Structures are given as C-alpha cells and as structure tokens.
Amino acid sequence: MSKQELEVIGQDAACCPGVSAAPLDDERAAELAKVFKALGDPVRLRLLSLIASRGEGGEVCVCELTPAFDLSQPTISHHLKLLRQAGLIDCERRGTWVYYWVLPSALDRLALFLRTPTAAEAVA
Amino acid sequence: MSKQELEVIGQDAACCPGVSAAPLDDERAAELAKVFKALGDPVRLRLLSLIASRGEGGEVCVCELTPAFDLSQPTISHHLKLLRQAGLIDCERRGTWVYYWVLPSALDRLALFLRTPTAAEAVA
C-alpha cells in the first residue's frame, strides 16, 4: 500500500476516537448510528459483502446482484440506496446498468471505532 | 496482553472472514445484522461508549448511566437490554443496582469483519 493510504488510515485513527476512548458526543453518535443502522439488515450485509468481495477497486453490476436474492429489483435498489446514503458504497450508471463499489475508508473507519485497545495492541 | 488473548483474537480472525473475503451466507448475515442493528441507534451507541470508556474490566452502575440522558429509566433499561441481547455488553445485579460492562471480543469481532485488506496490511 502507498504511504498516502497509510497516512489516511493514521488520520482516521487520530481524528475519530474509538468506542472505548471517551464517551461519544450526540453528533458523532447520530452520524455513526446512521451507518450501523444501514448495516443492521441481512440483505444489506449480503449486498455489501458481495460488492466488497470483488476486491480493491472491484465493482459489481446491479444485474449480477439481483439474481443472488429472492427479492424484486426495486427492493434490491432500495437496499443499495440505503448503503449508498450511509457512505458505504458508491455507484455509477453506464448505459443500461448501474455499477457498485465499496468505499473502503468508510468500513475501516467503523472498524477503528469498534476496535478495543486490547485488539489494537495485538495487531500493532 | 497475554498470549492467550492474542490467540483468541487470532482465532476470531481465522474463524470469521471479513466482509471483503467472500460473500456472506444467510446465517452469518442474520447474526451480524442483529448486532449492527443494536448499534444503529444514537442512544445505544452513547450507552455503549459510556460503558466501554471505563476501560478493560471496568463497569458502570445503571445509576450513573441514566443521568447522562434525558430519558426515563425504563427507556434506558430497554436500550441496555438490546445491547445485551446483541452480545455487546453483560451485566450483574448487586443489591439495588445493576452493573454493566462491555464484552471486548464482540466489538473486536465486528471490527475484524469490517476491516478491509488495505487497512489490515497497514496495521500488520
């Protein structure tokens, strides 16, 4: 990974204290709750995982996501919209289809928030 | 940290692939969604943070938690119950009061699930 990427991750750790560091203020609690709420649904978690498992820089056509679920296209699109509004994924329309990819920095920020000091020491 | 603790964290990483590793199956998606749903509320996030910020092995009396919120005791107790059902905290009654503490392994497990390969390399 590049030095720049390392610095970004370092900044995240510095800017955003973890759950154990200090009591959360109202604003940050509201912001984080919105993202966790987006993750609090099995279909959205499966969608996120399907997109994320394409690897860094990988993307998935919505036409590949829908057949993996026993749900209508509008329902899948609604779940994808909630993940996008939470800042976990982004998308682009190209011709007929919309393509989705994850935003790794959003996932890593949540991971840093949840990680306890014990685990942080273990991987340091 | 002890060798045993390191092994536990290592086992978690081995047993539970991250969001980017492979598409989630239904069972694990349902299990994880339940925990993320518990985190998807600002009051519960603030409660968790208040408890977690007591440090490892620290605990908080419910009598200290309630005054931090403009909510009734039963409402706070309900939110604490949801955090407990999600396996994020545990509690014990001693005399008049109930005492709460976090379960760090549950938080670390979620953090490992969310962490992308890029961040994993950065802290390795």
TrEMBL record, chains A, B:
UniProt superkingdom: Bacteria
Query: What are the entry keywords?
Result: DNA-binding, Transcription, Transcription regulation
For this protein, the record's Gene3D superfamilies field holds: Winged helix-like DNA-binding domain superfamily/Winged helix DNA-binding domain (1.10.10.10)
- Pfam families named among the record's database cross-references: HTH_5
Which parts of the sequence belong to the HTH arsR-type domain? 24-122
Q: Which InterPro entries match?
A: ArsR-like_HTH, HTH_ArsR_DNA-bd_dom, HTH_MetalResp_TranReg, WH-like_DNA-bd_sf, WH_DNA-bd_sf
Q: Which GO terms describe its molecular function?
A: DNA binding; DNA-binding transcription factor activity
Name under which the protein is recorded = Helix-turn-helix transcriptional regulator
